[in-house]
Amino acid sequence: MLKNILITIAVLLLLAVGWGYFELRSRGLMNEPVYDTVAPAIPELEHPAILVLHKTNGFVHKEGLPAAGAMLADLAEQQGWHIFQTDNAASHNAADLARFDVVVWNNTSGDILTPAQRADFRAWLEGGGRWLGLHAAGGDPSYDWQWYVDRLLGAQFIGHTMSPQFQDADVLSVDPSPLTRHLPSPWRVAAEEWYAFDRNPRETGSSILLAMDESSYDTEETFFPDASMPGEHPIAWTHPVGEGRVVYSAIGHTAATYALPAYQQFLVNAVDYLLERTP
After folding, report:
1. Is 90 within 8 Å of 39 (Cβ atoms)?
2. Residues 6+ positions from 219 with CB-CB distance below 8 Å
3. pTM of the entire structure?
4. What is the DSSP code string of 200-222?
5. CA distance 45 to 31
6. Under 8 Å CB-to-CB from 19, ≥6 apart: which residues?
7. What is the pLDDT of residues 88-102, one digit of tens each?
8. What does each C-alpha distance from 229 to 50, 174, 188 come to in angstroms?
9. Is 3 exposed, middle or buried (0-12, 13-18, 19+ CB in 10 A)?
10. What angle do CA 17, 18, 22 make, to 5 degrees?
């Protein structure tokens, strides 16, 4: 009897380990990074031209990433943007970047740029480029590129809700902004994963667009880092980088969130803001 129980437990453990390994590999968490060195063929685009990069060398958001890409394609058609989407980070070279008005990083993860691509992207942004980051673009627990954390993002991701992972929560419009004026405050968002960061980007010059009402959801963790922040808990913000400007939104793990008209309008407003068009 005891022997059968032990065998059953051993089989279940093996199955659990196997499933865990498969899940980690399928999500990109056990893969060696792959760097692109040959740029994709980019067609001639009218302006405003938007480059969307969805390269993943880390966690792969199998639901949110394609949903965001499809949403951006739909918005481009509605708004008159001319969009090129790729998972090839070699698109981040000086000549190709100069062809675009806005670059969007759609749930990118891991270390994705070579040193030369980093230098070209930084020069493009600091020279007047415009960047929009979605969710996982700021969701790695560590980065090899400190400039990306300190200057482009302005904060380091430290964890997200895990008990449960996906929760309804109230999002607050903070600073008066054309990006958020269409939103109620609080804005109730259902079944999302909520990030926390090691600092408030306001401390280094960001304007906070949206923040979490921590009283509206559970931030306590048992086996994972606390998902709360002292004081204000930003979830979307904007700031200048040299002559350029960035908008980052940590909202957007689930596919359903990209179908929300309110969130789609926020992203339309963000792109209009980056293009210096009145939303």
Report:
1. yes
2. 161, 194, 196, 226, 227, 228
3. 0.90
4. -GGGGTPEEEEEEEGGGS----S
5. 34
6. none
7. 999 999 999 999 999
8. 33, 16, 19
9. exposed
10. 115
